[in-house]
Amino acid sequence: MTDSFAPRDWSSHPRYIEPIYRSTPLRGPTKPLIPIRQSLSELTGPVYGQDCLGPLDADLTRNGMKSAEPLGERIIVTGRILDEDSRGIANTLVEVWQANSSGRYIHVVDQHPAPLDPNFFGGGRCVTDAHGRYRFMTIKPGAYPWGNHPNAWRPQHIHFSLFGPSFVTRLVTQMYFPGDPLFALDPIYQSAPAAARERMVAKFSIDVTEPDFALGYVFDIVLRGHNATRMGH
Amino acid sequence: MAKLQQTPSQTVGPYFAYGLLPQQYNYGDGLLKEIASGQVAGADVPGNRIRIEGQVFDGAGKVITDAMIEIWQADHLGRYAHPRDPRGSNANFKGFGRFGTGTEADNKFVFDTIKPGVVEPGAAPHINVILLMRGMLLHTFTRIYFADETEANAKDTILAQVPAERRDTLIATRTDTASGMVYRFDIHMQGPRETVFFDV
User: Fold this and answer.
1) Fewest CB within 10 A of the end CB: N or C in chain A?
2) Alpha carbon B160 to its chain's center
3) d(CA B72, CA B95)
4) CB-based contacts of B75: which residues, under 8 Å, 6+ apart?
5) What DSSP character marks residue A214?
6) Can you list the alpha helix ranges (DSSP code H) found in chain B?
7) Contacts of B31 in chain A (CB under 8 A)
8) Comparing C-alpha atoms, which of A65, A45, A41, A69 is closest to residue A55?
9) What is the residue extent of each domain of chain A?
10) 3-class SS at A142?
11) Is the per-residue pLDDT at A233 higher than 80?
């Protein structure tokens, strides 16, 4: 097999154990990872296309709506899923989840005393088009406190889960909003190497904005590319 | 053109359940249909039916109650449901499972599937695993091998790259129960039995 996937770029990803994020010291592996070659098991991966989507999956302002529109600032989040050679990754599943505009998740474990919104669920997904483009309509999530250290707050963020073309291109990350004053104080954001952090921050885009309706943000995500010249195609 | 650089990984956090496993965790009354679950193979999929179950333990030996395990496997003839596998797998077997450790007794993960066949010469039957959780900033890769495949395991070229004294951490033990074959695969994040994780 001549074509394999580029390795994880360790200068772009957090380390497993990052003591400022208090849950990591007992949960990250301590022994060195064992390098293995990519066999067919790694060069393949789950394929999910349009057929797994419901009609409202990409519109979080509507998929959980019961009696009225959800509260908060309506936003569009769009961008491309790319490989390291700037090629768009077509037909790949993008799954997202987030807090509501008050900074509260519907998850039972979330005990933050901010209101739930009966019209907001907070989960969605879509599949990229032929150019690797995706698009969600949603509500800007609120910041919220968490128990990592006294007076710890998470910056506003949306969770993203991606597959890409193979088992090894999988990525789970978080999208942040530009200029958030909590960046400097957030151990999870800070866990990424300094030079890589701003890759997790969306850009405001007036061009994506829908006039009189919703503000627009662009967030491109780069997955592991190819090692060798691509065969075929 | 200049190379783009990879987007950093971030933790899946404690709140993935309603976004990624809404039915398992009973969120949303079906408004978002989960793409995968612990039911990897339906009754119409050919192959030997097996259950794989286990727990995930942290460095203090405590069971982790908010991990998510994903598995990716070949069908009973060793074929993957992916265009890169030219052999073409049986159409109704996707081979992907996803399960969170927050709903079963003892915070187990449970996959009902079929035993995968041999993917390529020199490979023992195995299942590929991605593990995600709060407190882990990027997912880990590991593999499940089967204790009753001693001969094939001895020849497996990936297992051969693992120090002999750690290979056991990748081998699921088998129990035959009244309801079928159950393989036990516990994952230890740290300690003397720390599971082998791969850089791949």
Assistant:
1) C
2) 20
3) 6
4) B45, B46, B47, B81, B89, B90, B93, B95, B114, B116, B117
5) B
6) 17-20, 150-155
7) 54, 56, 63-64, 121
8) A65
9) 51-222
10) coil
11) no
Q: Which one of the listed residues A62, A112, A159, A170 is annotated catalytic?
A: A159
Q: What is the pLDDT of residues A174-214, one digit of tens each?
A: 999 999 999 999 999 999 999 999 999 999 999 999 999 99
ipTM of the complex, rounded to two decimals: 0.97
d(CA A219, CA A226): 22
Burial class (CB in 10 A: 0-12, 13-18, 19+), A202: buried
Asked if A105 is an active-site residue, the reply is: yes
Q: Where are the domains of chain B?
A: 36-188
Tokens representing B141 are 């890769």
CATH superfamily of A51-222: Aromatic compound dioxygenase (2.60.130.10)
What CATH code is assigned to B36-188? 2.60.130.10
pLDDT reported for residue A1: 45
Cβ-nearest to A123 among B18, B62, B195? B18
Contacts 24+ apart (CB under 8 A), A144-147: A144/A99, A144/A103, A144/A104, A144/A110, A144/A112, A144/A114, A145/A112
Q: Which two tokens stand for residue A31?
A: 């022994």
**Tell me: the pLDDT tens digits for B107-147?**
999 999 999 999 999 999 999 999 999 999 999 999 999 99
Contacting residues of A for B14, CB less than 8 Å apart: 107, 109-110
